Amino acid sequence: MGVIQSKPHNLIDIVYRRLLVEYGPQNWWPAETWFEIVVGAILTQGTSWRNVEKAINKMKSAGAMNPKAIREMDSNMLSELIYSSGFYRIKAGRLKAVTKYLGQRFGDNIEIIRDVDSDKLRRELLEIKGIGQETADDILLYAVGLPIFVVDSYTKRIFSRLGIASEKGSYRLYQSMFMSTLGNDVSLMKEYHALIVQHASKVCRTIPSCSKCCIKSKCEFGSKQKDIYD
DNA sequence: GGCCAGGACACCA
DNA sequence: TGGTGTCATGGC
Predict the structure, then answer these.
(1) Residue A126 in 3-state DSSP?
(2) Could you read off the pLDDT of A54-78 as tens digits, one per residue?
(3) To 10 degrees, what angle do helices A153-161 and A171-182 make?
(4) A206 confidence band (pLDDT: 50, 70, 90)
(5) Is residue A127 packed enough to be buried (19+ CB in 10 Å), middle (13-18) or exposed (0-12)?
(6) What is the pLDDT of residue A204?
(7) What is the C-alpha to C-alpha distance for residues A33 and A65, in angstroms, rounded to an integer?
(8) Cα A55–Cα A58–Cα A64 angle in degrees, nearest 5
(9) Distance of alpha carbon A154 from alpha carbon A201, whole angstroms
(10) Where do the H-state alpha helices sit in A5-152?
(11) Cα A25 vs. chain centroid, distance in angstroms?
């Protein structure tokens, strides 16, 4: 998967400034605690955030928004709490797996997690069944606070249409392009991913003149609006 | 009624 | 290594 765009850095820089002007600071992740970020990262897999919020609120009401409670909770009960987020049986298992890891490895202490080498921590997260690259990086960036850029389908869709690389380019290819541009600026990485999601999931729904939406696979976003970023 | 959502994984060629 | 089906509720 080769890079098509010869100068992606300028494009990445320009798009960020445009998005920030358009939407303003997003101050992600929308959560009260680091552990709520971990839960949200898993529950939002393939699911709209609206459905995730309902599940998170139910978990909070049930006193289940902590690692120990999830570990000790019956799987069927946990599935009921997160029902609205979809894939609830699978996600209940994933929450069980990640909380088991957090307990055994760190004693549920975020400060101890922050002491671990980032590459090693990423590898450990990826070894947990149900934690893929995007979910792992969500956790590393937003919960742990490490300078790791999160690549999602929106990122690939939008930037492939701007000619930066193929939409089928690997996760690591996109991530390396962004990280080499953004350096180690954690807050910048948090904002950028949030702005991409904000733009991709809402802009085309709120602009009547856009008959096609960039969340749809056939949308011409990028090719039609590329001049915006020139 | 169909499409899509802040993915991950098993399976197959 | 890449493509496809599966998991599933809920909004539009």
Answers:
(1) helix
(2) 999 999 999 999 999 999 999 999 9
(3) 80
(4) very low
(5) exposed
(6) 46
(7) 9
(8) 105
(9) 8
(10) 8-23, 34-43, 49-61, 67-72, 75-81, 88-106, 110-113, 118-127, 133-138
(11) 16
Q: What is the tally of helices (H) and strands (E) in chain A?
A: 13, 0
Q: Are the CB atoms for A59 and A43 separated by under 8 Å? A: no
**Cβ contacts of A3 within 8 Å, gap of 6 or more:** A164, A165, A173, A177
**Tens digit of pLDDT for each residue in A75-107?**
999 999 999 999 999 999 999 999 999 999 999
A226 CA from B12 C1′ (Å): 38
Asked if the Cβ of residue A69 lies within 7 A of any atom of strand B, the reply is: no
Distance CA A91, CA A184 (A): 31
pTM: 0.90
Q: A141 CA to C8 C1', in Å? A: 28
| Residues close to nucleic acid strand C (C-beta < 7 A) | A 1, 46-48, 50-51, 54, 83-84, 86-91, 168, 170, 205
Q: How far apart are CA A87 and CA A82, in angstroms?
A: 9
